[in-house]
Structures are given as C-alpha cells and as structure tokens.
Amino acid sequence: MKRSTTKVNNLESLPLHEANKNNKKKQVNIVGPMVLLCCFLLVWQILTNMYPPLVLPSPVKTLESLLKIVQSESFLLIIWTTVKSLIVGLTGAIITGSILGILMGANERMKCLFEPLVYFVQSTPPILYMSLAMIWFGLDGQATIFIVFIASIPVMAVNVYEGFENIDPKLLEMAKIFKFSKVKMITQIIIPSLKSYFKSGLIIVIGFAWKLVIMGEVLSSSTGLGSQITDARTNVQMDMVFAWGVVVILLCFLFQKSMAGLLSLKRIRRKNYDLNNE
C-alpha cells in the first residue's frame, strides 16, 4: 500500500514539475533577448557619440519619432496599405507555389517541366522583377504586389517539393502492401509528411515577402510604409527613417510569430483531440 501511495504521489507531482520546467524555460527565453537588446542599445548609443545625428540618430531621438508616428492619424491606414499588398501577393504565391511543389513531387514529367522554371525564377534578382513591374504596372502599387507574388513562388514550391522527396519510403511500401486507396494515401501519409515543410516554407516566405513589399514601396509607390521611408530619406530625417524601420521590423516579427503560433496551436489541439479519443 505504501509503495502504491508513493507512486500515486509521484504521478501527481509530475504536472507540477513539468510546469516549473516550462516556467524556467520561458524566463530564459525572455532574459536572453532582453540582454541582447540592452547590449545593442548600448552599442548604438556609443556610436551616436561618434557620428552626427544626420548619419546616426540616438535611440532616444528614434523613440521620440516612433511615438510621433504611432500617434499620427494616418498610421493604421499606412500599415493597412502595406499589409493589403502583402496579403494579396503572398496568398497568390502560397497557392501557386504549393500547387507547383505538389505537381513536381507527385509526377516526374511535371518535375522535368516545372523544376527549371522554378529555379530560373528563384535565381533572378528581385530588383530585376521590380524594374520590369514598374514599366508594366506603373507606380500605383500593383508593381509591389507583382514582385511579392513572383519572387515568393519558388520558396513555397521548393519547400513543398522537398516534402515529397523526404516522404519515408517504408510508409509508401506499407501503403502498397495494405492496398491504401488514393484518398487514404493522401490523408494518412502524404499530407502529414508535407506539414512540417509547408510550415517552414510559410514562415520563411512571410519574412521574405515583408522585405519585398517594403522594397517595392520604396522604389515604386507613393503609399505604404516603404513610401514613408522614402519621404523621410528625401527630407534627410534619419530619425524618421530609423523609426519607420523599427515599425517594419516589429510588424514582420509579429506576422511570423503569429503564423507560427497559429500552426502550433492547431497541432496542440489535434494532439489533445487524439488523446481524448484514446
């Protein structure tokens, strides 16, 4: 009886022990970036004493400009203009890239047909697409959508294709032995094998697309976050350039973390559902 009671107590203490471990991990995850941020700000402040404000504004001046930007009435509208272009171009790229990746992975003839095209698009510098888009679409924002779309397709296509290439051959052999139907083959083997590759491709392409949309707006648009950076640069307001840069970095970080968190939440819910069914 004593041994069984001890085992029960140990089992009951396991969740508490795991919770303490998770709390410690969270503290470490927070402390590390905070220390790095403090070191970065310290180095930045030291460098501002060596260069004039027109070259490198101080962290305090940048923060003041950032507060002005956030408090402005047009702040949310400017963000929405950029986000709208990003969503339109990125959605098209994710769908098109995923379809190309599936075709290349599922069919050898399709691979021979589309693989050179995908790698050709991937190896072409984005600035070349931007130059062509400015001629084709003008300077009203459509060029930005085009460059996000065309340059992001290979990222998704290659990731999905790599998912097909790394499907465990033993699983495919088992499916043949047990005579899986095509639907069961797709739902039980192919989709689960592609999930991690699709997720990594999605997170990578979001960060890549943010850089593209800002570059496109800087070069070709009179609206959005990129245009604000251009205006600040033209007026030689380096503090505003840095402040808008901080806004762009934070938004990109939030988009990537939100997508990663959303995908992780779905995975946790699915695990809990499977455990409850068991």
What does this structure look like?
With 278 residues, this protein is mainly alpha-helical. The chain has a single domain, classed as MetI-like (MetI-like fold, Orthogonal Bundle), CATH 1.10.3720. The protein contains ten helices and no strands. The chain has helices at residues 2-48, 59-71, 75-106, 108-123, 126-137, 142-165, 169-177, 182-220, 224-234, 238-277. Helix 3 (75-106) runs antiparallel to helix 4 (108-123) and helix 9 runs antiparallel to helix 10. It is elongated. It starts with a helix and ends with a helix. Residues 1-19 have low confidence and may be disordered.
End-to-end C-alpha gap? 29 Å
Fraction in helix: over 70%
Residue share in β-strands: under 5%
Low-pLDDT segments: 1-19
The chain-level mean pLDDT equals: 82
> What is CATH's topology name?
MetI-like fold
Quickly name the level 1 CATH class: Mainly Alpha
Class by SSE composition: mainly alpha
Alpha carbon gyration radius: 25 Å
Shape: elongated
The number of distinct β-strands equals 0
Instruction: Kindly report the name of the CATH homologous superfamily.
Output: MetI-like
State the helix count.
Answer: 10
H/E element order:
HHHHHHHHHH
CATH architecture: Orthogonal Bundle
| Total individual domains | 1
Largest sheet: none
